[in-house]
Amino acid sequence: MSRRTEKSKQLYQRTLNLLIEGGSSSSRGPLNYGEYPLFMQRGSGSRLYDADGNEYIDWMMGFGALPLGHAHPDVARAIADAASNGAHFATATEIEVEVAEMLRALVPNAERVRFANTGTEAVMAALRLARGYTGRPKIIKFEGHYHGWYDDVLVSSNPVTATVVEQASGSIRVVDSLGLNQHALEDTIVVPWNDLEALRRAIENHPGQIAAIITEGVMANMGVIPPAEVYLQGLEKLARRNGILFILDETVTGFRIAPGGCQQYYKLSPDLVTLGKALGCGLPVAAFAGRAEIMQALAWGGVLHYGTHNASRIGLHAARASLRKLTENHCAAFQHIWRVAERLRSGLVEIFQKRHVSAIVQGVGPMFQVMFTERKAIRDFREFCRYVDRKAYQRFVLKLFEFGVYATPAATLHWIVTLAHTDADVDLTLAAAEKALDAIAGAES
Hints:
Elements: H1 6-15, H2 30-33, E1 40-44, E2 47-50, E3 55-58, H3 61-64, H4 73-83, H5 94-106, E4 112-116, H6 119-134, E5 138-142, H7 162-167, E6 188-191, H8 196-204, E7 210-216, H9 231-241, E8 245-250, H10 261-265, E9 272-275, E10 286-290, H11 292-295, H12 313-354, E11 359-364, E12 367-372, H13 381-387, H14 390-401, E13 405-406, E14 415-416, H15 423-444
Parallel strand pairs: 3-13, 5-6, 5-7, 7-8, 8-9
Antiparallel strand pairs: 1-2, 2-3, 4-10, 9-10, 11-12, 12-14
Helix pairs in contact: 4-12, 5-12, 8-9, 12-15, 14-15
């Protein structure tokens, strides 16, 4: 084929004595991409262009940080205008007030807002706030959920082998990293997700000790796994009944599932919510928000939360431009991304069925994942680890690259539809999927 990636290969070779795994995050390195990752140079709308000039339809969109697509003119103009007046003040700014007002109007429980820089930082602060407000030490997190690289939640976030699942007699508790403080996870209780009875038992086993239950609205670190019917509502009731704060982590789902995220879509009322990724539309902006009486504990002399770059003014100008675009014309953007996502999902399903490929396409709205499996659905972390063929998925996506389609090659992540994607992008992607499957079948025959 005419497609060449020699410059990406050369750039990767330049990194070998400079950077670890070719970049600044292991998820971007050769573990997922094969011999070397592609080096991207620019993006525009739904397209990415690599160092060799190859063009791709991008269904990864900066790990979900770009709800409008690449270089949306409103956002680009907002960033340029803001930068022309100074990069950073570390003072109170009007834009901070404006974006906080927008969040309160969109996010149902956002009575008070505090800005941070990343989803990890927002989670760190929310958990500290929960402990400070309740005076309790313990938290509950769920198998397969990722809440950033903060020590207290860095457990059971990555897939384990089927053998580990089969031998588990209780919750699966696997530390995700070396170098954690040895006491960091002593107060972290790990529970299977989508299992209210397991959650109830965990609460009963630690009476009066649990400060918070933190959960994603949709499990987004094992492909995409939706909540079971009434599961999140049941979780909320259990938390309320036991004086436990309910923290909804919307770092991934915020401003993508609905204007008010999962709490709007599933009609939830969390005590605290964490936001990131899509909030900054490509710039590092995050936030946590919640009930006024809880958030008030951040006041001076209470729960400490600092940050030189909190409420980055350039980032907040980008956020304001993005939120305006997402919510104009009665939030028409969300209707568009749901419709385009459904066309792409149903098209992929039809291709897999026609070719007798054992794969499903599972998702919620504009976020979904292809899972190579004999199962009809994947309902939790354990089923993902036992039944999803991650290598088959990686082969499929790496082959898609050759036909001008860019999606995450990690089966644990997911595809993302944005306002920039079109029906033409869907048609081209479905054609590429057929070619990729043909190429794989030909190589295996």
